[in-house]
Specification:
Two copies of one chain form a homodimer. With 467 residues, the first copy, chain A, is of the alpha+beta class. The first copy, chain A, has two domains: 1-216 and 419-467, 2-Layer Sandwich (Uridine Diphospho-n-acetylenolpyruvylglucosamine Reductase, domain 3), CATH 3.30.465; 220-405, FAD-linked oxidase, cap domain/gating helix (Vanillyl-alcohol Oxidase, Chain A, domain 3), CATH 3.40.462. The first copy, chain A, is built from 17 helices and 21 strands. The first copy, chain A, has helices at residues 5-11, 21-26, 36-42, 56-68, 119-130, 146-152, 159-162, 193-196, 229-240, 257-261, 285-293, 322-331, 347-358, 388-401, 413-416, 423-432, 444-447, and strands at 17-18, 49-51, 73-76, 93-96, 103-107, 110-113, 132-134, 173-177, 185-188, 205-215, 220-226, 247-253, 274-280, 299-303, 335-337, 340-342, 362-363, 365-371, 374-379, 382-384, 404-405. In chain A, a hairpin with a 2-residue loop joins strand 18 (365-371) and strand 19 (374-379). Chain A starts with a helix and ends in a 20-residue tail after the last helix.
């Protein structure tokens, strides 16, 4: 099966394409370079061409044509992922959804939208229509698309209240196109959603998304400082357990993270300040202030509705989730990170165990989230990178202590997830992508069902580095 | 200190009053007769007169005048409480707030309202204005006032998501009038709210309420049937732990409650069916159905958006909370109830222990609620009443097993609460009601600070039964 790229490109020439080599290169990449291991392996990856469909009909045409010519298709939103989710490991076509971005319907509690819509634009539309917004978003919401978030994300700002994208009710419906001689149009709800959500576009292309909405408020952004990290973590956890206080974000940044890497915050903190970043609904501010006044160790150093900071630090959510890592990387390119889940009820205890084990080598950044109805932590700690071997060892040591790791130094679904096959996703790929052309190399169980996960998976079809 | 009722009544004659003796009697009562112990003690209680102020100025006038003439004042909403909260134990003036009921301002996430507003009317106003509703309400929301709920209630429909009224953020602000020679107007927020919320009007009169709002949806009412009670309880608990599914109510009714007492439900269930009553947001129905399909024991027998029942059973919330008891009492006047808290994480286990102990003598009715961020149960079991002694014994046996009891066979704040003095409420009563004229007999620590709670408190100032 040899792809005929030229023929596919020719047949699709009436659809908008990017021809500039620099554009093709940039649209073949995401934030994979957060990981030194992925940077070493994926830096050369590049599509043969980039096509920008503007409708479902054009998506179907791209899939049908590429199928006919055996050309791989990797779908892409804004490329804000960190796992190489949208990088075309085998080259071929990158299908960029930026032109396919209409907000179609808004109702109480839900919206119907095309996948290329940027989350910021989606929120602006639902807010203007009826004071609503999406329940959760990545810290990259100002550039990321809703389709990329559903296909490549797992949660984020809002997960402190709503849990993860994979939780029941956090996606209502997905419309999906298969990659066959005659692509089919399918509608998934309920159990079927798990086939294609968080599948990196490996087994179908999402063309319409129905998402639940939450009320949109004029969130008050805050930074609360603590001398003690455990006190800060306990505060954030307890605040999220206050049923009557509406929170959208609760992040904990271990000292000296804020002082070292948060540029416009630096002058307001010391090297020993651990910060908690928060978004609180305005009508919950009285309850919040009462809660905080009960904690003598808590100092509110910034609130967006009343402060004397000479320079606005920008939205607090752009300090949280994966933006924390980005800010640190700008100062120190040797930093990388992990994705840790500290599960209830041992979350606080586990974090302290990890801190005692690694000290400054692994600096704690926690995001409070709900899992199964209980408040716990997602950790995105900053790791001082020395070698791949040490990084792998750090991962293993976390797992040995009882933490769950979603390894961000891997480019496959399984390794970045629970290190096991997702039978539903694999079964649907068999049905929907018989030639295995959708985002190749990202689903290990498709290529090698017996993979043991004892080392990083090396996709055999990977583009070779040009000499 | 002898009250001069006639002088006070004369001085207030320009304010609307009820003169009809039957009206005075009915406005001196609430649902205290749920309890055989309260029925025996309070049935004769009656005000000397009932005044219906329509503004804060008139409230101040009533308080000032009654203060001058040493006349007790008991404030009253719709009289839907069950603890005799609004019953004038020492006679005097009942101040009925029905005319003082304006919705003053509605904003995103909050409303400002006068205390006499019926919750149904308040919800209609906030819904029409901006698709919002109060976070929680009693099952009597169609007749109860918002002021009565704040002063005499503790939670209800909506507590499955928002916890209790006492939790931070569930009341924003209260405006309160003192009973002094010159009544003062005070504004309470934060920690100060605990002085007067759930204080039965014993230490101040609420004249304005600022409450947080939640999004209002066209809730889908449902009944789900189970053969097994423990399975039903587990289902309700697990459903409430689904972070992505928006619930407003989850009640569990042990068999044969639904068959025996739920008139329009009877023909659709058997004597062995345990029912779960639910309110789910329409945009959460897909997630809900997916969740329910995973439980082979769950049968959805009614949903308000699609059913073939010849007669509409009415709102599901009018089967829950204290309405369950009301429905049972209509069939069997020997039934009474308890208020039990089964706390996380032993809630499921404790319920089974109680069931094994009492069998049919104490039939389980559970309401799922959040407490400290965790899902657990409020129990309002139906109790077969035989004697006061046995009822007291049942209460003690619950406490011995580790359940918390809010005793509904008591008319004082302390006995219906945590059986201890609330220092904040007492301190504020000293300040705001120096003559002790506000709702006398309801705060034990005012009358008898050394009370041991070893038997029912007998208010010495109680009106005598007329021969």
């Amino acid at each position: 099966m040899t792809p005929d790229v030229a023929a596919a490109k020719q047949a699709l020439s009436h659809i908008e394409m990017d021809e500039n080599p620099a554009t093709i290169r940039s649209k073949s990449r995401d934030f994979f370079w957060y990981s030194p291991m992925l940077k070493a392996r994926l830096d050369h990856v590049q599509a043969d061409f980039v096509v920008n469909p503007k409708s479902e009909a054009e998506v179907i045409e791209v899939l049908k044509t590429c199928y006919a010519h055996d050309v791989p298709v990797t779908v892409r939103g804004a490329g804000t992922g960190n796992y190489g989710q949208a990088m075309p490991l085998a080259g071929g076509c990158v299908m960029h959804m930026k032109n396919f971005a209409q907000v179609k319907e808004i109702h109480p509690g839900r919206v119907i939208v095309e996948p290329g819509c940027i989350i910021k634009d989606l929120d602006a539309a639902t807010r203007a229509h009826s004071g609503q917004e999406v329940r959760m978003m990545p810290s990259t919401a100002n550039t990321a698309t809703i389709g990329g978030f559903v296909a490549g994300g797992s949660g984020g700002v809002g997960s402190v209240k709503w849990g993860a994208l994979r939780d029941l009710g956090n996606i209502i419906r997905l419309r999906v196109i298969t990659m066959e001689a005659e692509p089919r149009v399918l509608e998934f709800r309920g159990e079927e959603l798990a086939r294609v959500s968080h599948a990196y576009g490996t087994n179908g292309i999402i063309t319409e998304i129905e998402m639940p909405l939450a009320p949109a408020y004029d969130w008050v952004d805050m930074f609360v400082a603590f001398d003690s990290f455990p006190e800060a973590a306990q505060y954030a956890c307890d605040l999220a357990n206050e049923d009557g206080i509406v929170l959208k974000l609760a992040s904990v940044y271990e000292a000296p993270m804020a002082h070292s890497y948060f540029q416009r915050v630096k002058e307001h903190v010391t090297e020993t300040d651990t910060l908690v970043g928060l978004m609180v609904a305005p009508h919950s501010m009285d309850g919040f202030e009462t809660f905080t006044a009960r904690r003598p160790g808590a100092r509110i150093i910034f609130r967006s509705d009343a402060n004397d900071w000479p320079r606005d630090p920008g939205p607090v959510f752009e300090f949280g989730w994966n933006h924390t890592t980005l800010r640190a990387l700008k100062f120190d390119p040797k930093i990388t990170y992990l994705q840790v889940r500290y599960q209830f009820p041992k979350h606080l205890e586990l974090v302290e165990k990890v801190r005692a084990t690694f000290g400054a080598e692994v600096l704690q950044h926690l995001e409070v989230l709900r899992e199964g109805g209980k408040v716990c932590f997602a950790g995105l700690p900053l790791v001082s990178y020395t070698s791949d071997e040490r990084l792998e060892e750090i991962v293993r040591m976390h797992e040995d202590m009882g933490c769950m790791i979603f390894n961000p130094h891997r480019y496959t679904l399984e390794e970045g997830g629970r290190q096991s096959a997702d039978a539903r996703q694999l079964a649907f790929k068999r049905e929907a992508d018989p030639k295995g052309l959708l985002n190749p190399g990202k689903m290990i169980t498709w290529d090698d069902p017996d993979w043991a996960y004892d080392r990083i998976y090396d996709y055999p079809g990977m583009l070779q580095v040009e000499p």
